[in-house]
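Give me structure tokens for this 437-residue protein.
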Amino acid sequence: MILVGNQRGGAKNLANHLLSQDNEHVEVHEIRGFASDDLHGAFHEAYAMSKGTRCKQFLFSLSLNPPAQERVKTPIFEEAISKVETKLGLENQPRAIVFHEKEGRRHAHVVWSRINAEEMKAVQLSYSHRKLQEVSREIYLEHGWKLPKGIADHSKSDPRNFTLDEWQQAKRQGQDPRAIKTALQDAWAISDNKAAFENALKERGFILARGDRRGFVVLDQGGNIHALGKKTVGATAKDVRNRLGDPKELMSLEDARVEHSRMMQETLSRLDRDLEAQKEKQLERYEKQKADLIARQQEERQKLFEAIEARQQEETKARQEKFRSGIGGFWDKLRGEHKRIQSQNEKEAYESLMRDRQQKDQLIFQQLEQRRALDAMRRREEERFEAQHRDLEADRKTYAEPDLNPDKTDQNRQEVINARKTQEEERQRMPERQLDR
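Here you go.
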């Protein structure tokens, strides 16, 4: 279903619009997380909550429009809403769901409050348009609905346009045959001639080529071959020829493989450069974190050492004040009190020294652990980057076939041609051999 969402204010106007009698039927399906049980009251609560923040567009409004010919049940709408919530980070936010029916079609509206009541700030909704498009495409594929032309996310369909994260995610997920078939059918459905079909395939990461024997084939992202026909695009061979013309005008399968390999090598080189840039940026971030940590630790040590020194001076002064002066002090020496106090002071001074050393050591060990944790994080990141470099190198070898050396490519192509000529001559001589027998 088509998902259209936007951030907005205007609580009263939005409630009036959702309850408008211009629709044949209006159903307030759910109000969740608000104290009020009506739309006006609920949206006013969101507005009141937003006054404690700087957020002006305190609502996020979403419309869900399924294909006109489909009978979409309420649980499917609810499941789609849950997917959007998860994708946008709006889980557990107050929301209202309203269903509209008009001109024989049923669609839904959802409005969330963006204000997080615990943190008193708005939920950040970055790249919401792209995320909604991803969810929309997922729903179409999940239910087998025909994708509208505008819903395809071409930048993510063609692996040559993948970011490093998207490339790794695609590798983890693998190629889904159903997704490939859907992509081919989608490209066929929105094209009415060969040029349009080639462009639609290219946007999805496929290459149209001439088959080894006859007819049209498609080379997918993984270098696999798919013949165009009923099983792939739902069209007969005659329909394919009528729309695409003579396959001889297309590049051969061998040339398509070479072109595919060349493009993928360029993509992998770009991804490798992106990975190296990420590694350098991560290293810079680590060095800054380490410098900040060391500066903070030095400040902590300085404060502790100054506090210990001040306490030592106070305690030394307190011990010294235990000795009496004048006649009282002379009398303490005669009766041994001075010696006892001196012995007690020495004991307390030693205990204070051990306490201060332990406190210093405790801070030092704590700071060592912090630096060890940071160093361990750096090593893990370096290992992760190295593993990703190895994966890209393995991918480079995978896409290095056929050999991209022009001389070897021409030689291999000539060998294939010669082999085919030999096979054709053998087939032509076959009836003569049978007659001789």
